[in-house]
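User: tokens in, sequence out, please.
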């Protein structure tokens, strides 16, 4: 994203102008002016992606007039001013201003706003949705874009989703968009920690680090992962598995942006973007007092839920197509194989699907039939089908009907059920027999024979 896009800064205060240029020139080409006239001239000669406009310009110039020209060109426009009053806000938004920022607070937000816009325009999201986090689900894509837009000003992000849905890929995307660019155009680190994968006795040492002699075996000092995330992104996966002691320490780090390594009385500072994730029911953990509510409030400033793959079947085909296209060894899936994969439950989500597809690359036959699929998913699918069929069939029989059948015989029970169905169908259609018959898909002779058999010719609704 560096130096690919153009930004026009229209600001009459030289100090503010120079500060904004220093903040943004890592990300965009910045042209600046203090003049309404020159701003309009620049807009007429060059294509800009973003405009930042002060409302009061030199020599009595009007930022609103510059804003009007920028919006005619459909440029994302940010109004930046000290002159905050309702009339100005209304005028700016009437001209379709995209964002209104108080000049006294721009330092905390302007960089994230610009990086957010560049991500939307750079093709980064298209690449992400087609190669990293493959989805054609419009609701999920909309939710992810909304999360990006809400995550300005270093707000913490909490991701909920089953194992294998791509939470780490999403965390990495947020890092790629928002990580600060420092000297030599380098970004801060992306530090990925799966808390559940670290033995409980080692979690504190891994996160906070330690000094030499802090404990038996600490023969030299070690930098903690939280410090390594300074200037970058700290991704705490499976945060719900953190012990109460670690939760308390994390809360303090998040609030103060500093901590003490084990064995040290000297604090260390670390400023990072925080992203956390879990596949556990975090609200249940809070209710059971296994997770701190105050910590949850700090990590959950922005929330994203990723549905399991079985709830977005359209993505299964997209993932299969991408895998087959990018793989050097080509295979062909028979139609019934694709159909099987589309209907399978994928409890391991995208990770399980990719593992199955990878296993097919090594199959002896390159035209893949059902028999080539791993036995584990074939057997599991049979079990799922049987469970579903039993549940579906069982739902049609009430306990009262089963009791009656066991006492009076199944055929007597079936007659009672049939009589009740005919009776209630006629009642539902308010005695209009032809409509009831058509809805039941019964021929005329059979219908009236049944009415006679069950004494329903002059019916009132009967119970079974």
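Assistant: Sequence out:
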């Amino acid at each position: 994203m560096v130096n690919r896009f153009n930004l026009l800064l229209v600001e009459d205060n030289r100090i503010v102008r120079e500060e904004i240029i220093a903040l943004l020139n890592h990300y965009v080409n910045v042209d600046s002016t203090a003049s309404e006239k020159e701003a309009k001239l620049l807009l007429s000669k060059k294509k800009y992606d973003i405009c930042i406009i002060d409302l009061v310009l030199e020599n009595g110039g009007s930022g609103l007039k510059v804003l009007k020209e920028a919006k005619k060109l459909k440029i994302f426009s940010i109004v930046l001013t000290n002159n905050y009053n309702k009339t100005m806000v209304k005028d700016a938004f009437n001209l379709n201003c995209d964002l209104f920022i108080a000049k006294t607070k721009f330092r905390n937000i302007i960089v994230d706003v610009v990086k957010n816009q560049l991500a939307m325009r750079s093709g980064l999201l298209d690449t992400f949705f087609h190669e990293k986090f493959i989805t054609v689900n419009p609701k999920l894509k909309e939710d992810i874009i909304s999360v990006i837009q809400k995550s300005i000003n270093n707000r913490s992000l909490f991701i909920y989703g089953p194992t294998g849905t791509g939470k780490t890929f999403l965390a990495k995307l947020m890092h790629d968009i928002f990580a600060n660019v420092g000297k030599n155009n380098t970004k801060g680190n992306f530090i990925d920690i799966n808390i559940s994968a670290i033995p409980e006795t080692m979690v504190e040492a891994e996160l906070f680090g330690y000094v030499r002699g802090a404990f038996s075996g600490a023969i030299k000092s070690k930098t903690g992962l939280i410090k390594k995330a300074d200037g970058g992104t700290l991704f705490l996966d499976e945060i719900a598995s953190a012990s109460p002691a670690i939760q308390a320490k994390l809360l303090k780090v998040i609030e103060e942006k500093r901590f003490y390594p084990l064995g040290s009385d000297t604090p260390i500072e670390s400023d990072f973007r925080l992203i956390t994730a879990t596949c556990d029911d975090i609200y249940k953990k809070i209710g059971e007092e296994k997770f701190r509510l105050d910590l949850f409030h700090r990590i959950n400033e922005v929330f994203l839920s990723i549905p399991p793959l079985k709830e977005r079947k359209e993505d299964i085909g997209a993932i299969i197509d991408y895998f087959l296209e990018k793989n050097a060894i080509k295979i062909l899936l028979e139609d019934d194989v694709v159909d099987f994969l589309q209907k399978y439950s994928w409890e391991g989500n995208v990770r399980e699907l990719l593992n199955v597809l990878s296993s097919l690359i090594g199959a002896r036959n390159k035209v893949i039939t059902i028999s080539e699929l791993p036995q584990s998913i074939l057997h599991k699918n049979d079990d799922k089908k049987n469970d579903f069929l039993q549940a579906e069939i069982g739902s049609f029989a009430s306990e009262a009907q089963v009791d009656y059948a066991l006492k009076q015989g199944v055929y007597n029970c079936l007659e009672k059920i049939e009589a009740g169905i005919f009776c209630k169908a006629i009642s539902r259609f308010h005695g209009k027999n032809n409509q009831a018959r058509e809805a039941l898909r019964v021929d005329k002779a059979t219908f009236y024979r049944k009415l006679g058999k069950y004494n329903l010719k002059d019916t009132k609704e009967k119970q079974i």
